[in-house]
Amino acid sequence: MLKISVPATSANLGPGFDSIGLALAMPLTVTLLGPSQDWQVEHPFGAAVPTDERNLIVKTALSLAPDLAPQRLKVTSNIPLARGLGSSSTAIVAGLAVANELSTKPISKNDLLLRATELEGHPDNVAPAILGGLVVATYVDQNVQAVQLPIPELFASVYVPNEELLTSASRKALPVQLPFKQAIAGSSIANTLVAALATQNWSLALTLVEQDRFHEQYRAKLVPALATIRATAHAMGIVGTYLSGAGPTIVTLGTQVDLKNLQAKLKQNTSLTGQYHLLPVDAQGIKVDKS
Ligand SMILES: Nc1ncnc2c1ncn2[C@@H]1O[C@H](COP(=O)(O)OP(=O)(O)O)[C@@H](O)[C@H]1O
Ligand SMILES: N[C@@H](CCOP(=O)(O)O)C(=O)O
């Protein structure tokens, strides 16, 4: 039996728009149950997600290996769809891995990263989903470069609103151009964030995570919980809250103790009706179990 596991990811970490991402210990798994007449996907996502060759996992597998014989796949996942935790990246990465495992000509991990980035459009979810941990990556002129940083000694408090927000819709809220001065400020904050993460200066990193200049201000109206959670955390002396990916999920990074206290406080706020998770970082990325 072949089982592929791909972690959820939280992209951007504030200023690292389209380039920084963190893998979280909440996996999607795909088990290959064997050949079949047609592609069949058993999954927990409801009627909106196809169960045949139109399923994103299968479509992605066939984009890499068009001649693959149909299979029965069983998918399990607690990653909510269209909430900013990289669900589409898990499907894309899992689909490429399915093709790679069944194909006689598997591609390398680097090519897998390039393919996954081409399909997703940006590398900040697919790179940590493949490599694990904290990854900084760039995709410019069809080239991907990805660098793994030390695994942060941090947990993630994850607040998932009940409403979906498609990444495509959330990107429509972004401006076409930024004033030069704003771009320089955003880039200097992002660069310093990367330096803080690379040198494991977590307290500076958590401060800079909140200083994005590229996207959060434009998306804030779509995600009122961001301001609420950030303000609640600040009142408790906790810094490190950002919009996860394109939202609407809000992540706060910090110690397990602080984040447990934060969640206890947030749960008293009746306007926050979504779901909570307290997750460690996933250090491994994609796993293929051939037992
Ligand atoms: N495991 C999956 N199987 C099939 N389709 C999926 C899966 N995960 C995500 N998708 C597709 O991707 C869409 C969400 O993608 P996106 O808007 O990028 O949100 P996210 O922030 O969760 O990645 C879903 O509405 C669904 O169409
Ligand atoms: N950098 C992207 C990240 C999208 O992540 P997702 O988890 O919402 O798909 C963006 O901010 O649009």
TrEMBL record:
Pathway linked to the protein: Amino-acid biosynthesis; L-threonine biosynthesis; L-threonine from L-aspartate: step 4/5
Catalyzed chemical reaction(s): L-homoserine + ATP = O-phospho-L-homoserine + ADP + H(+)
Residue intervals of the GHMP kinase C-terminal domain: 194-268
This protein's UniProt keywords: Amino-acid biosynthesis, ATP-binding, Cytoplasm, Kinase, Nucleotide-binding, Threonine biosynthesis, Transferase
Domain of life, source organism: Bacteria
GO molecular function: homoserine kinase activity
Ranges for domain GHMP kinase N-terminal: 55-133
Gene3D superfamilies: 3.30.230.10, GHMP kinase, C-terminal domain (3.30.70.890)
This protein's record includes keyword Chloroplast: no
UniProt EC number: 2.7.1.39
Localization per Swiss-Prot or TrEMBL: Cytoplasm
Signal peptide: none
Binding site for ATP: P80, L81, A82, R83, G84, L85, G86, S87, S88, S89, T90
PANTHER family: HOMOSERINE KINASE, HOMOSERINE/4-DIPHOSPHOCYTIDYL-2-C-METHYL-D-ERYTHRITOL KINASE
Job of this protein: Catalyzes the ATP-dependent phosphorylation of L-homoserine to L-homoserine phosphate.
Family assignment from sequence similarity: Belongs to the GHMP kinase family. Homoserine kinase subfamily.
Protein's name in the database: Homoserine kinase
